[in-house]
TrEMBL record:
Its main location: nucleus. Residues 1-38, 126-158 are annotated as: Disordered. One of its GO terms (cellular component) is nucleus. GO terms for biological process: ethylene-activated signaling pathway. This is AP2/ERF domain-containing protein. Belongs to the AP2/ERF transcription factor family. ERF subfamily. InterPro entries: AP2/ERF_dom (IPR001471), AP2/ERF_dom_sf (IPR036955), DNA-bd_dom_sf (IPR016177). The keyword Nucleus applies.
Length: 158
């Protein structure tokens, strides 16, 4: 009887601590859902959004960059997770998954490079769309071509 009591008390105390951990995690998840709109990103104190991802079967992380918009950070994360985990990866924007032939093993440096390229492009577009001065300059053009060099003859600085 004493053995049962000590066993049940230890299991009840572990159950209690397990319940506390679950409650803390649920509270933490609830808080994060308001601050963190996408998977794999977080917001710095000063307002920048950063993305990083853990390498499979390793403790190290791949730094994916710092961005002004959460969408850009999320797209950088999506690019990296797609190259790391393949088509079965859980993406923030599954409708924007790109088809680049077959996936092949890539180094973490090349994954970081591709992810930061995507994030930088999306960040530039998102920032341009938010800025009221750029909207008046671009007119009806919604998505600027980031690979196009500015034409000095058509600049507004003349």
């Amino acid at each position: 009887m004493e053995g049962e009591y000590s066993c049940s008390s230890s299991s009840s105390s572990s159950t209690t601590s397990l319940e506390k951990r679950k409650k803390r995690q649920q509270d933490h998840d609830h808080d994060d859902s308001q601050e963190k709109p996408y998977r794999g990103i977080r917001m710095r104190k000063w307002g920048k959004w950063v993305a990083e991802i853990r390498e499979p079967n390793k403790r190290s992380r791949i730094w994916l960059g710092s961005y002004t918009t959460p969408v850009a950070a999320a797209r950088a994360y999506d690019t990296a997770v797609f190259y790391l985990r393949g088509p079965s990866a859980r993406l923030n924007f599954p409708e924007l998954v790109f088809q680049e032939g077959q996936l092949h093993d890539m180094s973490s440096a090349s994954i970081r490079k591709k992810a930061t390229e995507v994030g930088a492009k999306v960040d530039a577009i998102q920032t341009a769309l938010r800025s009221p001065s750029s909207q008046s300059k671009t007119g009806s053009r919604v998505n600027p071509d980031l690979n196009e060099y500015p034409d000095p003859e058509n600049s507004d600085d003349n």
